[in-house]
Amino acid sequence: MPFEATVGAFAAALGDPWAPPPAMTRGRGGAPDARRFSVYRNNVAVGLIGALEARYPASRKIAGDEVFRAIARAFIRAEKPRSPVMIEYGEEFPEFIAASAGVEPCLADVAWLENAWVQAYHAADAASASIANLAGLSPDLLPGTRIAFHPAARLLRFSTPAASTWSSVQSGHDFRTPADGVREDALITRPDADVRVRVLPSLAYDFALRLMRGATLIEAAQALNDPAFDFGSHLVGLVESGAVAALIEGQPS
Question: What pLDDT sits at residue 18?
Fold first, then answer.
């Protein structure tokens, strides 16, 4: 059998707990040895589950070790690593949790947040715009100005208070099922190489999302059409959070 086919059969058997040992792998007796092969298979499973536990520590605390590992075992059977870099494994885990039966709705949201946290941590380096940069803009240029977001910035909308739950679990508090109907939006940034999670006030998500999609400041503000929207505080908040890499000046109004 060609070497590539041998490696493929070996890898497939490692990922399938019910598969027999590949015929080309033999123990001391010259025959396939299921017991010895299971050691390799178990090491792979333990390593992949460990990678998920490292990437989703708060989710593990919320679910409990037994439930988390049961979901993780099902996930590693369905999703094999696509890269030898283990930190990249598990990006699809939040979606898998959301599709799993009987889990707390907040669990999947917290997993989405943790996944975004890891993405922000490993995002490209870039300088952040400052309040001084914002203050230096001419009032005539401000309405048509666009924002270039920092590579680490992540904007998230949840159906649960996932950011507050994540923060509470991070602080060592026990998980409590949140009240129905309580939702949160969050912004993840990485100022000074420190990943931060910020719960956004009302309308901030919609404003930032429009800016991420290329709207000018005035276009994003006018699209909200809400008298409660405070343009100045939301813009300053985005800049202060480290979410903005650059302010791209517009044309004079």
Answer: 72
Q: What pLDDT is stored for residue 96 in this prediction?
A: 97
Taking 70 as the pLDDT cut, the residues of the chain under it are 1, 15, 27-33, 253
> Taking the complete model, does pTM exceed 0.85, yes or no?
yes
Which parts of the chain fold into alpha helices (H)?
3-15, 34-55, 57-63, 65-78, 93-98, 105-121, 131-135, 162-170, 204-212, 217-224, 231-241
How far is residue 220's CA from residue 112's CA, in Å, rounded to a whole number?
A: 26
114 located within any domain: no
> Within this chain, do residues 56 and 143 fall inside the same structural domain, yes or no?
no
Name the token pair of 125: 């380096």
Q: The CATH number of the domain where 158 resides is what?
A: 3.90.930
| Token couple for 218 | 């005035």
Amino acid letter for position 202: S
Judge contact between 115 and 93, C-beta under 8 A. yes
* Residue 165 placed within a domain: yes
Written as six digits, the tokens of 90 are: 């598990």
Would you say 149 and 243 are in contact if contact means Cβ atoms under 8 Å apart? Answer: yes
116 falls within a domain: no
Q: Which of 149, 154, 158, 153 is nearest to 215 (CA)?
A: 149
Which residue, among 75, 77, 72, has the nearest Cα to 13 in the 3D structure?
A: 77
Do residues 221 and 156 share a domain? yes
